[in-house]
Structures are given as C-alpha cells and as structure tokens.
Write a structure and sequence with these properties.
It is a single chain. The chain contains 7 helices and 17 strands. By secondary structure, the chain is an alpha+beta fold. It folds into 3 domains: 54 residues, Roll (Structural Genomics Hypothetical 15.5 Kd Protein In mrcA-pckA Intergenic Region, Chain A), CATH 3.10.290; 85 residues, Pseudouridine synthase I, catalytic domain, N-terminal subdomain (Alpha-Beta Plaits); 81 residues, Alpha-L RNA-binding motif (Alpha-Beta Plaits, 2-Layer Sandwich). Strands 7, 8, 9, 10, 13, 14, 15, 16 and 17 form a 9-stranded mixed beta sheet that branches. It has a 4-stranded antiparallel beta sheet with strand order 3-2-5-6. It holds the Pfam family S4. InterPro entries: PsdUridine_s_RsuA/RluB/E/F_cat, PsdUridine_synth_cat_dom_sf, PsdUridine_synth_RsuA/RluA, PsdUridine_synth_RsuA/RluB/E/F, PsdUridine_synth_RsuA/RluB_CS, RsuA_PseudoU_synthase, S4_RNA-bd, S4_RNA-bd_sf. This is Pseudouridine synthase.
Length: 252
C-alpha cells in the first residue's frame, strides 16, 4: 500500500480508498468488517503502516481510487443517501455512470432541491462538514405568509430549536406575492442540522412550501438543470483543498 505514508489511522486509509466517509469508515471498523494483515480490527484509532494489508469485507485495499468531485443539482423526490431501505431513488442513481464510489457531502431533504457535492475524498468531505469550517449554504425558500425584514430579525440573532440556539443567519426577503400570500426568502447559514432551514422559518411563523439550496461554499448551480451534474474544475478542487470556501462575488 504505497499510498500510506509512515503510519496513518485505519479509518483515514479506508476513507482515502474511497470506500466510505471517515465516519462511515469508523462504522465499518466497529462492525468488525475490517482486517489488518488478516486479523480483525475493531478498535478506532488503530494505526497501519505502508507494509500492512488492509481489507474490508475480506477484499484488500490495493490503493486509493482516483479522487473525483462532482456538483449535482439535486431534484425533488431523491434521497441523499447511498442506498434507501424504502427503495426510493438516491443521488447515486443519478450519477450511475461514475465509476468511483462517491458519497454525498452532507444532505438535503427528500423534497429539497439544489447544490450537493459528491466525492470520494474523505478528507475534504470531513473538513467541509466540520462546524469549524463554517461553510456558507445559501437557500431560497418559498414560504407561506407575507414576510418582512422585521419578521425575520430573530433569525439574524439565533432562535431556539429543540433546545439548541441556531447560529446567526443572514436573511432577506427577496419578493412577496400579495395575491398568493407567499414570500421568497433568502437564508444563508453554515450549520447543517436536520430540517434546519424549515425549522428556522417555521419558528418565526413562515412554513416552507419549497426549498432550494442555490449555493454551497463558492459552488453555484449556473448551467445545471435539476438532475444534472458536473465535475469540479481543477481550480475549484484546489480552493477546497486550500479551505478557501468564500464566494468573493457575493457582497455580505
């Protein structure tokens, strides 16, 4: 395994091989599905050397897959998982011509559309999802009710949801339809808790009817229709590796 330099944590080696995210690799180890030099290993933090043979489900890891990065405009009615016990379509079904075993970075709800990054680079995936990275996620929500900037003010300070106070959000009213009594609201957050945007807007009295993530870090959906995806450019990958997540074109 020439890709292993000196000693590295077992879960990192598995993630770098494109078999799972770092967290998923930890689960594989705990479940007893990983062996080192023919011996089952279930202890997290185990370190392996270049000369060691690591196998998952009895299949040796012979080297890292080529790292790939895709941006998907997720359509409605698709789950953000690698497989679904209910038999619903997953985001991997859309990327069915990608030979590498990629997985989504974070998640979007079944009925939420928009920007979703998929990769087999466990290191970058974990860095993007770590709270300290504070990666901006830009959402456009169609909500019930005619919202005003004052109505949304609590979101800029943080609101309590299930015992947790949300981080201050950047939020604005984009438009109001007085006839249908709905509003379009733009919300920028860097947290990623389950149903967070929907819960935040419901908290201030504006239930979400439709939700779209228009941007993830500096990655937007320009040129991508729902269900379409593209490879990231070399420059975009370099920015992710440099942890340069800002969009310099946007003024906030």
């Amino acid at each position: 395994m020439s890709e292993i330099q000196n000693e590295e944590r077992l879960q990192k080696v598995i993630a770098q091989a494109g078999l799972a995210s770092r967290r998923g690799a930890e689960a594989l180890i705990v479940e007893g599905r990983v062996s080192v030099n023919g011996q089952q290993v279930k202890e997290l933090g185990t370190k392996v050397r270049r000369s060691d043979t690591v196998a998952v489900d009895g299949v040796p890891i012979e080297g890292r897959e080529r790292l790939v990065y895709y941006l998907l405009n997720k359509p409605r009615g698709v789950v953000t998982t690698t497989q679904d016990e209910k038999g619903r379509a997953t985001v991997l079904d859309i990327l069915d011509d990608v030979s590498q075993r990629v997985y989504p970075v974070g998640r979007l709800d079944y009925d939420t559309t928009g920007a979703l990054l998929l990769t087999n680079d466990g290191t970058i995936a974990n860095e993007l999802m770590h709270p300290k990275s504070k990666v901006d996620k830009v959402y456009i929500a169609k909500v019930k009710g005619m919202a005003t900037e004052n109505d949304l003010l609590p979101l800029k300070k943080g609101v309590m949801i299930e015992g947790h106070k949300t981080q201050p959000a950047r939020v604005s009213v984009e438009s109001v339809d007085k006839t249908k009594k709905t509003s379009m609201v733009k919300l920028i957050i860097h947290e990623g808790k389950n149903h967070q945007v929907k819960n935040m807007l419901a908290k201030v009295g504006f239930p979400v009817e439709k939700l779209k993530r228009e941007q993830y870090a500096f990655l937007d959906l320009v040129g991508l229709q729902p269900g379409e995806y593209r490879k990231l450019t070399n420059a975009e990958v370099s920015r992710l590796k440099a942890k340069d997540y800002k969009n310099y074109r946007r003024k906030h």
